[in-house]
Give the backbone structure.
Amino acid sequence: MKPIIFHIDVNSAYLSWSALEKLKNGSTVDLRTIPSIIGGDEKNRRGIVLAKSLPAKKYKVQTGEPVAAALRKCPALVIEPPDHALYRRCSQAMMELLLEFTPDLEQVSIDECYLDFAPIAHRYASPEAAAKEIRDRIFEELSFTVNVGISNVKVLAKMASDFEKPGKIHTLYSHQIAAKMWPLPVSDLFMVGGRSAERLTALGIRTIGELALADPGFLTAHFKSHGRQMWEYANGIDPSPVIVKKQAAKGIGNSTTLQEDVSDPEKAKTVLLALAESVSGRLRKAGRLAGTVTVEIKYFDFTKASRQAQTLSPCSTTDEIYRLACTLFEKLWDGRPIRLLGIRTTRLTSTEEPVQLSIFDLSPRQTKKEGASMDPSPEKLKKLDAAMDSIRRKYGADAVRRGRFL
């Protein structure tokens, strides 16, 4: 398939992360809802604005400007000092969550990254569906919002993620450039700074479209190699791939927000089966075995609970993960209506490493009732999962489904 690239960008990262930490520690004011910034010293009016809230943006406070200038625009501005250790922890948590989706990830700063969608496209109905799941899981599990830009090239994915915020998903494919990007002011183009924008305006080039239609030789004469780069970006030309630094995911999981609150345990277990199938399939694709399974519940009132247990031996079969998830669910659930269910596997090991088998792996499991049929052996379950994986790879994710889901 043709390349499809996501650009994932945290909305006002520093401010969002500081706001969540203050709320966690008992603050009654959410920095995101008032004119506020992350920046320098309020008392001495020094430093620059590192991040701003949307209400601060209405006062035309800009990232990178001196704090003193921001205070002149909005004297009531609330200033919070940066906490870089906190920001590193939040960034790491997001990257670890994204690695559960795919290892084909390029982190370009503390709050943004590119993701190659092509290797996981078979799991989703569309790129937008995958982006929605990524965005929603980050919000549900980490409580902050991200924008996701989708395109066939990196620079356009980056541009798309800068469209309307917060928590939005936007596409900007090559065929959409003229309609979506060219009408924008030239200062909105990635890699066009303030001085370059001023010089372009002085040359009569005010929009990205005018830049795209300009003579690249003319631009090179005025801006040297940067002129050529601006022209290429304005035309959506960016051959650079997602540069992946392979990292082994520390955990693989999935969660889903239910269409309506669930109080029936059998319905909840059907959801757990679907999650177990998804998680185990990703484990097998990654060549990993799970040593620990965690079940997560978010109730109708948004309170959360989780419980984990070790597997008898490292595994990646749907049946084994589902059985353990059901056991954990029965111990965890207190009967309240459920809003969200999740399964997460950790303590991952490679399928190539030697595995310490349990006694239950050595022979088929049999029920206590005399004459009852025996449960499939672990080896048969592995073969069943392998066969289903093969069919789905060849004919699509919905080519074979369990009767329970019909």
About this structure: The longest helix spans residues 265-286. The two ends are 30 Å apart (CA to CA). Confidence is low (pLDDT under 50) at residues 365-373. Residues 20 and 26 are 10 Å apart (CA to CA).
